[in-house]
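Homework help board

Subject: predicted structure for assignment chain

Our instructor gave us this sequence and asked us to write out the predicted structure in token form, then describe one feature. I got the tokens but I'm not sure how to describe them. Can anyone check?
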Amino acid sequence: MTSLRTDTMAKNQDKKKSLLAAGDSDLDTIASGVKFSGSNITFDRRPSFKSMKERECAKSVFEDKTETAQRYSRLREIFEMADNDGLAGLSLDEFTIAIRNTVGHKLSDKDIECMFKKVDADCNGVVDWEEYLTYNMLEYQEKNAMYDMLKEKPFPGTMIEIKTRHRDMIVRVCLFPTIRKRPMMKNQIDFTNGKYVSLSKDGVLCFWSLGMKISRTCMVDIPSDRATQPWLTDMVVMYNINTLAIASTDRDLVIYDTSANKFIKRYLISGLDNCITTMNYWVDLEDLNKATLLMGDTSGNIYVIAFDSSLRGNLFGSAGKKQDSVKRVSFAEIVRGFHNGVHGYRMLNVHEDWVVQIDFLPEIGYFASCCQGSQTSLYLGDYLKKKNSSYIRVSKGILSFDYCPNRNILVTGGMDYMIRVWNPYVTNKPIVVLQGHSKPVTHVVVNSKRGHIISVDKGKSIRIFELKDQSCIQVVSGRTVKLGFLPVSSLLFNPQTETLILATNQMVLLNRDDGEERFSDVLSHSKSVVGALYSKTFNVVVSACHDSVISVWDINSGERIIQFANAHKKTEKGVDIPMDITAMSFDASGRRLVTGALDGSVKVWNFNNGACLNEYNIPGGAEVTGIVCTQHRIYVTGWCKHVYIYIDGAGEEHAKNWKELHKEDILCIGYLSPNIIATGSYDGDIVVWSRDTGQMYCRLNASKSNKPVTDYTRLPEVKGASGSPSEKSQTNIGMEGTDSDPSLQLHGAVKRATKGRPSRALGLLSKVRDRQESEEVRKSISSNKEVHEYIEHPLLSILNSNKNTPSPGFLPRIFTRKEYDKVCKNYASAVEKILFLEARDNLDVDTASLLVSGAEGWVRAWSIHPQGGLLGQFNAAHKVGENIQTMATNSKNTLLFTADTAGYLKIWDIREYCTKEQLSRKKRERHATALQKKFVYLRVELLRKKSTKESLSTGELPEEIDKRPPPAASMPKETLKYPLLVNSFRAHTQVINHVEYVEDRDLLITASSDCSIRLWTTCGRYIGTFGEPWDQLSGVVRPKTLRLLIPRELRRLGSAKTLKVLNGGQTPMWQIAFKAIRSRGFDRIKNQFEHLQTKEDGDLATEAKLESNILGKSYKRKVRHKIPPLLPKFIETPLSIAVYHALPFVDLEPIQTIRPPEIINEIQCRRYVTRTRMKMHGLARRRGTQGGILGIFNKVLHKQNMPNYNNKTPVRMKRVVSKLQKGAQMGVKLDLSNHEVNRGSTVQSTDIDVKEEESDDALSDTESVMSSGSHVSFASDQNGSRHDLKLPRINE
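My token output:
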């Protein structure tokens, strides 16, 4: 048996060698009609083709598939032979040969090695067939899921609940749009300008703005003398005439007038056979007079009312003389044609069940209606019966449908949970059937603009399908739709604003815009980014965000390679809720990713294909704040005061934890090879552990001591340190017991501080004591240099609740250093980041090997030697009060990268910082020259300060550091040391959560809370934001070869120094300004600004007099704030140049020439004829005399001789004259001497109003005036009555 097994293994080895040596040899001819199943690879028979070109193309594709399948078949045989030989799989060398000779003949050795490391996730050095297949399948699945997830969601935001006044079921929500009228063009419906209307079946009608703010509420008139009140069933908006049509169970239709904020019942259409269940209204935009009202009832009948002249007066004639009168109209009269401009049609028994929905489709000239019957599910027909009608039959009927005119498709949803897409001309079979709903589909809407189908089922679940690939791109679970227990009764989609409104007896709103503030123009993640780690092994960047999404990026192009969502999640009521990722780290090999979440879960990932390899959970479910990986061990800590150790590859039963040495939550963790781990907590404690034994080496805390301690109960007392336990002096800030629970004490102090005004009953002793304390502090400030002049902290004023506010006559209270140190110790000493300097000697007393950062922006350098301690500290924040969230360093520990909560990134030279090794003078000069050559910021600062090269070895204190000094226990006089700042610029507008240094390419990666991950050079050149691909990078990046790019938000918010660094030291805007100044001259510009002008002697003498004999030079006269004067214009001459950062502009539209109307041409022609006639009769035109109608009336009343024309005065004119005389006898005064009448205007005097319809003020003779006609109204002086007289038109 042994010899037989040996012979078999030898044969397999020979066969394996022959397959590996085969290489790219010619493949055997593959017969047609074969398939792929199991271990056999076959293909279908080749089909017949019409053209030779098509045949050759299909032949090449078939041959490629055949060759690929054959190569994978040989690769599988190689893996199977290795398995039969008893081997665990293929080693790296064997895998390289196998891949190169089969499927990867075009790959390089480096690419194959990278593939081997990706597949070998367990790091055992071999790869079997199962691992290879699993990796490829998971990679394919995750990439597909990534592509689906990266698709833009139609409704990315959360649902907005709308407070309504409805208490019953809402039967309809409609949009009341406005019609944009355009001359010589087709009118348009403006969906962005209008209002929403909602109606419930109990008669409550609400009007809403487009922002869903309720404007007014009306009550539909329902008879109150009935035993049972009718229900309202449906409503349509007749937007061309500003009316509403409402149907009820009384089998009638009521039309209400809503113009000018009215709600008046105008018409009542009765005589309908059954109750109306659904309605639709359509308006012809080419002719707004034409409209169609369609209705369906409970018996399956269809009623149509067609309007031909809806804008020309009333719909059904006059409603009566009373304003609130209602006209009753019978539908039978409409059908018989008793009303002009209105036509009625009745189609009986169209459906076998009541009509659920009806709609008019003007693009195809049909109307569509649906019901729940199987034989008459959907009807397509013409009420004029000019076209053939057809039915669409679906089992159990159709509940909803919608038509897309752009694609000419009809989408239906029914009781069988299916969504079908139809060709309206082919009704026997649908084009596409979409599945996914688990309940009947009640509403379907097509978004023609995006090509989406929005569907809602009875369970209130919303699904959005894409028509392009018939896939579901978004699902909104019905459990998240807060609409109560009732199904959705009405749905409205605004096609322009892309707003979706759902209604039951409540209403919710879904917007396309999520409404969240975006701090960055290009987003890498949807939420705040936790970290971004660079994998040198695979040359990729791995990032994670609070949305529980992990992404892998190509560092050369910025493109997303793979992404997997819901990395950490919990399931509640069947819904997966993503949990925030709070920590991440690579394992010791760099091939796997370890992430921690908000719920205390820890997962190990193969980030190349998204496979979860292992999972752990912290006891208690505390948030994970730090992860450190060593060989076969994972150290996890969080808001639990413990450190948990998990064995890589084993279960949770092998986990253990170290004893609790922290009194507060642990915020960070660090690792120093081979056996040192450090943890930092909220109270500032840093515990250095032994990795092997779990025992504490020492404890560090700058707020308590500058020396390491080994016993927590015995801290060395520091003289003058307010944080030492030996001091029990009571302070006046009300902080007794704050060590036990600082958060509760802070909450109570804030509550007491904001409770009310201080009491007025202040004793004299308390006032004198406050003043004496202030004077003593001032004396100590002037005498002792160690006490800072001004000490400020926001918590000092909040926690000072026991002290009353001094009276206005006394000086404000100055806080002591002890009070400041105690506040910082309890509330501002958190450790956010721990960084070990591995290149330094950690056993040296005078060498700092541990850097910590955190609250107030302090970075401290510690020596972990038992006799070491705090060797140096400096404030690395851009502004006082900002925190340092993250740090990074290079392998030689010569550069330190810090990032604060304001978004600033700083680079420090720590080559000689807190270390014994010091450079010689020549090396220091060469080092300084190299730094100046590399960093633009350093050149700018040296040029501004005019410093020498030797000054590069020293640093400077920030300007406002005196207000926030370090704790006195840290001995700031000895430890306050600043390294050289070589670069500083603003990289983000929000908090920078992580900084990663890519040493082999000299690049920096920053991850921020503004949802962006950016790539920079160390000199400050911006390359791009991940998610927005940039030009391909290769090898070491040279800043001079990159384009000058600045993120858009930094152009708005970046300082001048930041912009100068990002521009590579160039100042393009200032160069333009300097050119303008040189061209104009500085003296001319200087005269325009007061602050640039020199003060006169008189002003200086006045300022010298403003000194007090008591207060001395510190006295300053009170200056009232005045509005600053307007600066003069910068541009004085046409030759000057104005410098603008940005100028808004809009595209100009061509101006159309306005042609005068025909009536103007008619008036001009009439005027010319009149003047010509006057010249022919020898009548000269009188200037300044009254003309037109006024002249006629004055001539008639004063009985002037009329011109002698051949035509006699008609009888109708005599009647007018007689009526005018009667009006004069009644006391009407006609004095129109000082009035001029224009066409279409009204002349008002004290007793007469004259309105002209078609008159001309230039007509001076009677004949031309009488040919145009006038309307005159007289007002009597006695009773105020008005008499209207119509002057007739007299033709020649």
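Reply (TA_rk): Your tokens look well-formed. For the description, you could write something like this. The longest helix spans residues 52-84. That's the kind of observation they're looking for.
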